[in-house]
Amino acid sequence: MNKSWRTYLLWFAQEHTEFRFAEIKSLLSLLKIEMKFIEEPKDIEPYWIVQFNSESDVKLLASRSVSLRNCLELWAHAKTIPDLHNKLKNYPINSLKPYFQPNKSFKIEVETFCRHFTQKEKVNKLETFDYLPLCGPVNLNNPDITLQYIEYYGTRANDPPELPYDVFFGRWVSSGLRQLIKKLSLKTRKFIGNTSMDAQLSLLMANQAKIKVGDIVLDPFVGSGSLLVAAAQFGGYVLGTDIDYLMLHGRTRPSRIKQKVREQDESIRANMQQYNLGHRYLDVLVNDFSVPFWKDEFKFDAIITDPPYGIREATEKIGTTKQNYKVKEEHLSTHVPAKIDYGISNIYRDLLLFAAKHLKVGGCVVCWFPVFREDYNEKCLPSHPCFTLTGNCEQGLSKVTSRRLLTFEKIREPTAEELQFFESEISDFRERYYIAREETRKDRRMKEAKTRQENREKYEKTNNN
Ligand SMILES: C[S@@+](CC[C@H](N)C(=O)[O-])C[C@H]1O[C@@H](n2cnc3c(N)ncnc32)[C@H](O)[C@@H]1O
């Protein structure tokens, strides 16, 4: 069948820009949409010029994307304003006719990216399009057609050029899901913890995991359940586990500065109800991930998680360093098991082994992985023969550390051997973090001692004189 490709402008938010490509790639695969680049996208630019073969595809993509602000059907794109007008005047008028009808109300918006103009200046810009054969009534609140003129002045807001780098004109088709970020904001969420993931990143993770209506989704390090909120928002039925009984019961110390004690009904379930997602909540259970309790044959559609890095919260599992330790019969009922360190490499190894067993083929594991920037190379990432790494985006945490959002897609079921063990050189961030912190502190102490010594010498010199 012949496909009629049309050109669209996708305009993205300039926030978490590293995640844009991975998000769209996952959504195209989830929604089975074809998209072609007309221009190679550049990381710093907030726009892509692409082609789709149906407008419903563009709308579908926008209905799930968190990175996307707006999509326009692109009628003209140029490097200069006169050239844009020339191109627009030459756009095949037949394809515009449906929009230029007496019964079609319209409005034209003027957007200037990275350079401010007064309302009057914007109106002057708008009037330069008076040759367009628009014959319907103007309607600023709810028009049938919204046209947009965009002047792009680069990304250096403090030092914009006199003239725009790029200018665009097109018909607005759809907006992305940016409003969800506000709706699910942690600021207004009933129950949060110290390491709650913000709404935007949680939604991006759910999109990376290609969650669709009816999926069963697990977060095995669930904490306050932020990732489950995002998964449920996209139709997942959600389950979580965590080693921390107090966290799951909303009994940890409050995370909001002004709050003295937790309210009675703070819980992950209450969060779900807050967003009318109660029907998507299955349960959360106390469980040490190193000893999972799921039936062998139980399968999840997706796993999204943010395991502990051992910096803001401990990486622990149940165990003891004592040899042949046995709890006495009389202590069994009140026994609280001891915990030992759960090294980062073991956490990620367990995560992929667990997913090899419990994830459906085609399902995704989406997780954060902390790295020391200087040491980073792809070889130090977790890997398993049943998974392919389909996404790997960096979010900087400090000058020297970052975390990477990894997406693993399961490509096949494991062999019996692959359920037990696999070779993977996973780097241990925590060890490296503490060594580097000690080095930084040592450096600082030496610098301070040197400054003190220099000051002392200066003081003595002045006094001797
Ligand atoms: C980074 S936090 C997760 C935060 C969560 N994404 C949220 O939005 O609140 C990591 C969680 O892993 C839990 N955890 C640590 N060790 C664990 C273990 N061995 N088994 C299960 N959960 C564990 C911690 O209690 C903590 O809640």
From TrEMBL:
GO terms under biological process: methylation; tRNA processing
Keyword Protein transport: no
Domain named Ribosomal RNA large subunit methyltransferase K/L-like methyltransferase: residues: 188-317
Top-tier EC class: transferase
InterPro entries, per database record: DNA_methylase_N6_adenine_CS, RlmKL-like_Mtase, SAM-dependent_MTases_sf, TRMT11, TRMT11_N
Keyword RNA-binding: yes
PANTHER family named among the record's database cross-references: RNA METHYLASE-RELATED, TRNA (GUANINE(10)-N2)-METHYLTRANSFERASE HOMOLOG
Record protein name field: tRNA (guanine(10)-N(2))-methyltransferase TRMT11
